[in-house]
Design a protein that fits this description.
Strand content: 15-25%
Order of helices and strands: EEEHEEHEHHHEHEHEEHHHHEE
Radius of gyration: 21 Å
Helix content: 25-40%
Distance between the termini: 34 Å
Oligomer: single chain
Structural class: alpha/beta
Shape: globular
């Protein structure tokens, strides 16, 4: 269960990439633009949105795989800023990558893949202690000891992702960024992996940032959900609250697209179809980035990005017309 103390605090995070447009000119691509949120100890915060909205960049920037353009990141109250604090932070924070086929080194055995973090941080005193720790990690994710000497190409996608999860647990982290960890897997395997994440959280007291575009998966595993659009968080609330009572027009559209298993309910469900395409982050609209696809947009929407406001019970929404819709 989540405690009422933030483990991760993200304040005004920005991540801009300079894109070369020719003739020695560059244009900033605003992948993440002024994002702030907290993740409580033991909590799972789901981060959802369309492809290209900046979800993965948020996760990688928190772990300092990308150097932030600006903003602050705190772990357990301590600011992550210099090389020493980043190295110490990475003992406690790690990542499960989206693609289990490209995130594992094909020239390394399972034992060496899982044991690599232990080698880097010298977390053992003997070869036997290292081996025991690797076998323990493999047992956490449902892999057998005889798998240790095999190579990644000998495994299915679901098993490869289990190897990646075991590697992420090697240093006994508190915080894991899960970057769409089931999107590349068969639907039949997805549920097994999601349930395993739940069990590991309960057993090891983990805190997750769970990045995905499948709202059903996110609702199942998350305590709270943040909805991203074009580098901004537009809504953040309790998982059931945001699923049953979305407020932002973009969130409403996302929820309406979720398939329903009940045929009667599916027929009665009114899909909210957005007009137009998602704008390019290289040339994002002024003010609210969603205004070009929003049926409620007004002049104020073009002027400035609305701040996240609490509309009650910790339900945060960024919309100028919140009182009208």
């Amino acid at each position: 269960m989540a405690e009422n103390k933030p483990l991760i605090q993200v304040k005004n995070l920005k991540e801009y990439f300079n894109i070369n447009t020719g003739w020695f000119k560059t244009v900033p691509l605003k992948a993440v633009d002024d994002v702030s949120f907290d993740i409580m100890k033991g909590e799972t915060l789901g981060l959802v949105g369309e492809s290209g909205c900046g979800k993965t960049t948020v996760g990688r920037t928190i772990l300092r795989l990308y150097e932030p353009t600006s903003g602050e990141i705190f772990y357990d109250g301590k600011k992550i800023e210099d090389k020493k604090s980043i190295r110490e932070f990475r003992k406690h924070a790690t990542m499960v990558f989206q693609d289990p086929y490209s995130s594992l080194n094909p020239r390394m055995t399972v034992s060496d893949i899982i044991g690599e973090p232990l080698d880097i941080y010298k977390m053992y005193d003997s070869a036997e202690e290292r081996r025991e720790r690797i076998l323990e990690l493999m047992s956490y994710v449902g892999l057998n000891s005889e798998h240790a000497s095999r190579y990644a190409h000998e495994f299915s996608g679901g098993q490869r992702q289990r190897i990646g999860i075991a590697r992420s647990l090697a240093l006994k982290p508190d915080f894991i960024v899960c970057d769409e960890p089931v999107s590349a897997l068969d639907v039949s395997i997805q549920a097994q992996v999601i349930n395993m994440f739940d069990e590991l959280q309960e057993k090891l007291g983990l805190t997750y940032l769970f990045i995905a575009h499948d709202l059903l998966v996110v609702r199942h595993i998350s305590d709270r959900i943040a909805v991203m659009y074009l580098g901004h968080i537009v809504e953040l609330a309790d998982a059931n609250e945001i699923y049953n009572h979305p407020v932002h027009p973009y969130s409403k559209s996302l929820i309406s697209a979720v398939p329903l298993p009940d045929p009667k309910a599916a027929r009665a469900n009114k899909r909210i179809v957005l007009s137009g395409d998602i704008p390019s982050p290289l040339n994002a609209p002024s003010g609210c980035p969603f205004r070009t696809r929003c049926s409620h947009a007004c002049e104020a929407c073009a002027g400035e990005m609305p701040p996240l406001k609490d509309v009650g019970g910790g339900h945060l929404v960024a919309c100028h017309r919140i009182g009208d819709i």
